[in-house]
Structure formats: structure tokens, C-alpha cells
Design goal:
Layout lengths: L8 H17 L10 H22 L1
């Protein structure tokens, strides 16, 4: 079984669909601070980091 890093299947599917829609029909490329796809990637990385920290603390 693949490690999902604490992300549920529903979250991963919804995240991927949103990311793809923003890639195809989203705003033009922007600075990293304002780009919605980069914001999504940062939020997901933070979520995974929190999960990994919780697992390491056990």
C-alpha cells in the first residue's frame, strides 16, 4: 500500500482536480506569493509536514 502521508483519498482526489483545473483554466502565471497553484502546493506540504511530525512524536 502506498503511503498517503495522512491525506485521505477524498482530499487527494479533490486537491488534484482543483490543481489541474487551475492549471488549465486558472489565472496566468503569477509570482509564487500570489499563484493559487503554488499556494495549494504550500498548504499541502504543510499538512504533510504536520502529519509526519505527529508520527515522529509517537
Amino acid at each position: 500500500m502506498r503511503n498517503s502521508d495522512g491525506l485521505t483519498l477524498g482530499y487527494r482526489v479533490k486537491w488534484r482536480l482543483n490543481w489541474l483545473l487551475l492549471h488549465v483554466a486558472g489565472p496566468a502565471e503569477q509570482a509564487d506569493e500570489t499563484d493559487p497553484r503554488r499556494r495549494m502546493e504550500r498548504e499541502r506540504a504543510e499538512r504533510v509536514a504536520r502529519y509526519r511530525a505527529e508520527q515522529a512524536g509517537r
